Amino acid sequence: MQFGNMARHNEPHSALKLPHPALKLLKVAFVFVGLSALLGFISAFVPWAQRDFGSVTAWFYPFKWCAELKTSPLHYTQCEDEDLGGWTASSITGFSVPLAGNKKCRGFFIATIVFVFIHVIFAVLGLVALLLLISKLWTKVARTLAPVVTLLLFISFAGTLCSWVMFIVYAEELCSADTVNSVDVFPVRGYSYGFICQIFATSCGLLALILGCMGQMKVFKPLDPHQPEGYTPAYPSVYLPVATGPDTPSHAPYLNGYVEPFPTPAEYTSIPLQPMPYVY
């Protein structure tokens, strides 16, 4: 039919799929999730607090503590594994440093470590889910993966947020009245590298979550992979007559590509052409 040929001629159409509107958002979210996971992984192996006890400087890690003897010309440092039992002794420096203090503070400290692991594990799962979602954007599977990605990103963000909040609760708590070289051990405070890493990881996780939610909204928006977002097909401004009277025209008035105006008697009803919906 000539009209159909004209419609296809006037409407730009490409056999290649265009980039999905959610693609850039999800790629940027992937970068921020990766940074968040990396910072969380680093925080598990660096000190979260640093304290000076006279001639000794102590660093508190998630699984150990280290003491540096400042009076030593070589700044001798000894590290001891922490079993979270409260006290760990150093035979070199001659005193003990309580890492967790009483049972309540020990619970705060263990919760900090648990939230760090939750953050890193779900961030890695979010990375994998994001890769799958990016590869399936133009398929129905994307609508199933998008909520999963958002959920994983939210749990990861909540984990990193709770980790440093819980550490603040621990570091500001008077867990015991112990002293080292006449210096109070608690409150620990002295926030250090691991705490700072988690602050930045939370910022990256929040940005990734926001971008992931924005990408999910675009995933659920019906789109044609062959047309850019917001594109309106360039159909000719032609109306098909629907005959309701006895004088029905026997042919459509097309002459060499020229569209003649249709008559508008009362017995004719004009119906505008509508683009066919894309089904995938």
How would you portray this structure in words?
It is elongated and about 70 Å long. It starts with a helix and ends in an 8-residue tail after the last strand. Strands 1-2-3-4 form a four-stranded antiparallel β-sheet. A two-stranded antiparallel sheet has the order 5-6. Strands 7-8 form a two-stranded antiparallel ribbon. It has helices spanning 2-10, 23-43, 103-135, 141-171, 193-219, and strands spanning 49-53, 56-60, 64-69, 77-81, 87-89, 96-98, 179-180, 183-184, 239-243, 254-255, 258-259, 268-272. With 280 residues, it is of the alpha+beta class. The model is unreliable at 1-15, 233-244, 250-260 and 266-270 (pLDDT under 50). Helix 2 packs antiparallel against helix 3 (103-135) and helix 4 (141-171) runs antiparallel to helix 5. It is built from five helices and twelve strands.
